[in-house]
Specification:
heterodimer; A: about 300 residues; mainly alpha; about 75% helix; B: about 300 residues; alpha/beta; nine-stranded mixed beta sheet; three-stranded mixed beta sheet
Chain lengths: ~300, ~300
Amino acid sequence: MRNSRVGEVIVAQLIRVAGYSAIVFVALILFFLIREGGPALLEVPVRNLLGVRWYPIEGYFGLLPLLGGTLVVTLGATAIAAPLGVLTAVYIAEVAPRWAREVLKPVIELLAGIPSVALGFVGILVFVPFVRTTFGLPTGLSAFTGAILLGLIAIPTIVSVAEDAIDAVPRTYRDAALALGATDWQAIWRVTVPAARTGIMTAVMLGVGRAIGETMAVMMVTGNAPVMPSGLLALFHPVRTMTATIAAEMGEVANGSTHYHTLFLIGMVLFLITLAVNLVAAGIVFRQRKRAERILS
Amino acid sequence: MCSPITRRRAWACLLVVCLLAGCQRPSRAAAGQGTGGTTLQDQGSDTLVNLALAWAEAYHREHPDVTVSVTGGGSGAGLAALVNGTTDIGNASRLIKPEEVAQAQKKGFTPQEHVVARDAIAVLVNPANPVGQLTLDQIADIYSGKISNWKEVGGEDRPIVRLSRETNSGTHVYFLEHVLRHGKPDDKTLFSTDTLLLPSSEGISVEIRQNPNAIGYDGLGYVTPDLKVVAVGAAPGGPYVRPSVETVNNKTYPIARDLYMYTAGEASGPLLDYLRWILSPEAQAIVADLGFVPVGSK
């Protein structure tokens, strides 16, 4: 009797520790990033950090081309993945017959499981020559090719979260719309999808977060040239993303050097961007929920 | 009642202990390994990695008690590992930098340099590209961005796509210093910003194979027959020389360099035996087989 109570206390404590551990890990990661990346702000003049040239072995630490590269690739990937992902989710949740749904869901989850390196191989051998010949570009190693691959990586996240959100819309909404004479199409686009838009927004944001942090596939197909992107055509030029820069250069860098600190600074910037995206997503959910509560009360 | 549980817990503990023991890093060669012979860690330059592997295998066949484990990662990674004490040999395709020597001295040793082979850097284009020869100046102008169309160097009207290894590659640094800057230390020429930095030799050859606009460079050992090797002229008007073992040895090919292995201080024991063996005719024959240039045949 006594024994089992002790066990219970221990288990309860363990679960509590597990619950708080996520916070501890994030705090530790942030602490570590600041400790290793902070010195870069002291060692490198701000004007250098805000420069447009990244060539660390000669002391050029301009972060703007890398930031721009990440933004171009991520926006491109979002433009590809968000419509495709949301439409797929709508199809699976609302339109698809039962058997199609049972095939599609596992296949999309399988897509999520493909290692990004393997996708990168497909990218190099298939997408790169395809993009070059189709668009008449000097080279297919471009932000656009990276955006296609990142789109493929982000789609499963978007589909599964958006599909859950659409599925969670109460049956009665649909039934009411249909009873009022709406067609299936009208019920989906005017009632179900708007009712689920909070969840759909969250899905897209999570997909974006997934795309920003992706490294390997992007490093293999974007050409990694640290060019400052300018204008819409930048999507079809080579770019260098922040993640690819860290992955390509971290291995060789001398421990404690300015270059080392600057790479951690890039990590800090990435962390802050992802944090911002997540906060925006959470903010949308929170605001929507409050509005729903107001209407209900 | 609780005895089976205790026993199971004991087993779990034992398992964890075993796993932890398994995780322990193999100690460095100098310490030896007591039972199963010696393991030497050899890490660094990607240019050298195939050669280092071939040496490691041949040496292990002759001396089964010595295992050499080889990893790539770039010259910088190898020298950093040497400084941090995680490798016995640091492979490098460039000379060690003064700051790396300083870091090693802070840890209490001076890296020792051993020239183990020579390498030529081949300039590569797509087989469909009619350009077959370039001067060093033209190559420098292409990579620094002054020349951006193949017609300026006698080719078709096509944009030039510049391919390079990543900045952590010894090949990149060598190319920067000896081609773009013509070996002058005060020259501050940089690669054009739109130079594509590819993380691997494979990435470069795949892109050149499929893209007629591309130009790239890589160690002679990595050149595959389906790429076109450009003949390089030291001065305008020629002579233009294609890289090969002969042209590197008689110093007519202008883009060639030494390859190094660094050790932490004077080598001794199995490590010294290994380095001596590498300079033997037998090991240097492997060098020639892999498309590099043997040392001792100046």
